[in-house]
Design a protein that fits this description.
The complex is a heterodimer of chains A (261) and B (244). Chain A is α+β, with helices and mostly antiparallel strands. Chain A has a single domain, classed as GHMP Kinase, N-terminal domain (Ribosomal Protein S5, domain 2), CATH 3.30.230.70. Helix content of chain A is 28%, strand content 33%. Chain A has five helices and twelve strands. Helix content of chain B is 18%, strand content 32%. In chain B, the strands form four sheets. In chain B, strands 9-10-11-13-12 form a five-stranded mixed beta barrel. A four-stranded antiparallel β-sheet of chain B has the order 1-3-6-5, with no helix packed on it. In chain B, strands 2-7-8-4 form a four-stranded mixed β-sheet, with no helix packed on it. The chains are: A alpha+beta (261), B alpha+beta (244).
């Protein structure tokens, strides 16, 4: 990235103007669509402006891990597709894609959104595994927030496939049974550039950040996951301000999510 | 007997038969098959005498000699720089055309242009193999410092510049921004942060509404509303946009 353009972004931000004309705490236009991937048990497409992310849910019956014989398996995976940004390359997962998956996973896991015990079919033998895959289709920054929102929207609409009498799964048949979601964890990343806090950074703004903090919260504003990035330190007041902003923005995203069924 | 099968200014699709008979000659974006002329891309048909052409609606930039374009340094070679020019082909800026200074053999080329720098250059030649050579020596050709670069549809560049640069000079006067429009669809803008946002929105408006009549007037209204000041009528002497 051109250093002078980064400098330019920072200087404009000092005057309170973002490169695309948004206010510092403004999220791009959010659209959520669900249930259009026919081969997945649940799916969602989330758009923030031109940025676009897909999430898909796959369910399967598996043998549980030996140390947790009564727990279902929850997996989150993300892949930065080369088609979504010219800077992404095919090959082993990049640090950013691992971080995205881990932070979204942490939000869903630590908030106890999915009761893994309820996914147990036969103790020590057979449990449901729920795999969440997140891929950007058009990468324009803020993948964690978009992916986290898409994952929850997809989980919300996912339906269990039909288990046949011989114990195998017929993926062409869906039952009406949905996953029992206890909470709605929503990640919001607040970025610090200079002395300004912004949410929903674009691709270019992401390259200009000093530090960022992803705050995942549930309905009653309980925090369930945090992730700090960027190489500048954050003071205590910084963190308090960032969490407060993140909680406010999570409320807005939650409203958009509530319209999804 | 030759006959034209599609109307001028009509949208044509690849494979569409445009004319029957050998009297019509295929130009850009068309080809001859037997004695028919067919389109090979989506675009608007133009008939110039006997020559049939299709003008693309969108797509990447096709390099043309003497065009002034904005390139981004993609790679530093032994003997120059490779520039990304929003085209299927990349351009090479050779050492001898990079600067008026003498550049010694083996000198550190990043002193002149670094990776990701934007440079205004002029195309010196395009070979039949589509190797593009450019020069950074000449009036107005330079490295761009500060500001931002946006990408627009290269087919809409003439509309953004306007007749004799009328559109771009209106944009400049309304927003007090510095603007350089490259023929390849890269547009460099520098000004106050608020005005930059307005000018980007104005350029996007030109892109999407370029086919409406009265574009200049509607844009003038838009700019006056956004900037909150009156735009005086075009004074031809301050047309310093020579890119066209």
């Amino acid at each position: 990235m051109n250093q002078e353009i980064l400098e330019h972004i920072k200087n404009s931000l000092k005057k309170g103007v973002r490169i695309d004309g948004r206010k510092p705490d403004e999220i791009r236009k959010v659209t959520i669509e669900t249930g259009f991937l026919t081969t997945a048990e649940g799916s969602a497409r989330v758009k923030f402006g031109d940025a676009e992310v897909l999430a898909g849910i796959k369910m399967a019956l598996e043998k549980p891990y030996p140390d947790t014989p009564e727990d279902g398996v929850l997996m989150v995976n993300s892949e930065l597709l080369p088609l979504s940004n010219p800077e992404f390359e095919a090959g082993p997962p990049s640090i950013d894609s691992i971080e995205t998956a881990r932070v979204i996973d942490r939000g869903i896991r630590e908030s106890k959104t999915i009761d893994t015990k309820a996914l147990c079919v036969e103790k020590g033998e057979k449990v449901w595994s729920v795999a969440i895959d997140i891929v950007p289709i058009n990468y324009e920054g803020n993948l964690i927030d978009m992916g986290g929102l898409a994952a929850i929207a997809a989980l919300k609409t996912a339906r269990f496939p039909l288990v046949k009498d011989d114990g195998t799964i017929d993926y062409h048949e869906r039952t009406d049974k949905k996953l029992d979601l206890k909470k709605m964890p929503i990640p919001v990343t607040v970025c610090k550039i200079g002395d300004v806090f912004i949410v929903d950074p674009t691709d270019e703004e992401e390259k200009a950040i000093d530090a960022r903090l992803t705050v995942t919260s549930i309905d009653d504003k309980t925090l369930c996951a945090l992730q700090k990035g960027g190489d500048h330190p954050l003071s205590e007041t910084d963190i308090n301000d960032m969490v407060e902003l993140a909680l406010k923005k999570a409320g807005e995203l939650r409203k958009a999510l509530e319209e999804v069924n | 007997m030759s006959e034209l099968l599609a109307k001028e200014r009509e949208v044509v699709v690849p494979g569409q038969v445009l004319a029957n008979g050998i009297d019509y000659i295929p130009g850009n974006g068309t080809y001859r098959h037997d004695d028919k002329v067919l389109a090979n891309r989506l675009g608007i048909l133009s008939v110039e005498g006997k020559v049939l052409k299709t003008m693309p609606l969108a797509g990447r930039y096709m390099p043309k000699k003497d065009d002034v374009i904005i390139g981004r340094v993609d790679d530093i070679l032994m003997s120059g720089w490779r520039l990304e020019i929003n085209s299927p082909y990349s351009a090479v800026l050779p050492l001898k055309d990079a600067s008026f200074d003498f550049i010694a053999k083996g000198a550190d080329l990043t002193k002149y242009f670094k990776l990701d720098d934007y440079v205004v250059v002029k195309i010196t030649q395009v070979t039949s193999q589509n190797l593009v050579d450019v020069t950074a020596k000449g009036q107005g050709l330079r490295k761009l410092r500060g500001g931002r670069v946006i990408k627009v549809n290269p087919q809409k560049v003439p509309r953004i510049i306007g007749k004799k640069g009328s559109m771009v000079s209106m944009l400049k006067r309304a927003t007090d921004c510095k603007v350089i429009v490259g023929q390849n669809g890269f547009v460099w803008i520098e000004g106050s942060p608020e005005m930059e946002v307005i000018i980007v929105r104005a350029i996007r408006k030109i892109e999407t509404e370029s086919h409406y009549s009265g574009l200049t007037e509607s844009l003038k209204g838009f700019l006056e509303k956004e900037t909150g000041k009156k735009i005086e009528d075009d004074a031809p002497e301050n047309n310093d946009q020579k890119v066209n």
